[in-house]
Amino acid sequence: MARQIRYTYNNVVKTIGFANDRFNSLQEAVAAAEGVDLSNYLAMEAQVLQHSKGKNAMREFRDSEFKRMGFSNIEFIKD
């Protein structure tokens, strides 16, 4: 079964295919589909991961940064 991602980017709902061999996360896949450069985000993500003691800090950072970039409602869907 093919995996697909549904997300909203700048108030437009979009659907793309997802392959585990190309991307590590949903967020990387949607950023690549929209041509968004994640180099600064990935560097800051590494710092948050080093200094945080739980998964909540990482999740909150990721969600707030992607919201700032214009993404929302990123989720897997089934055919």
Automatic annotation (TrEMBL):
InterPro entries noted in UniProt: DUF2960 (IPR021343)
Name the domain of life.
Bacteria
Protein name, UniProt field: DUF2960 domain-containing protein
Q: Which organism is it from?
A: Alginatibacterium sediminis
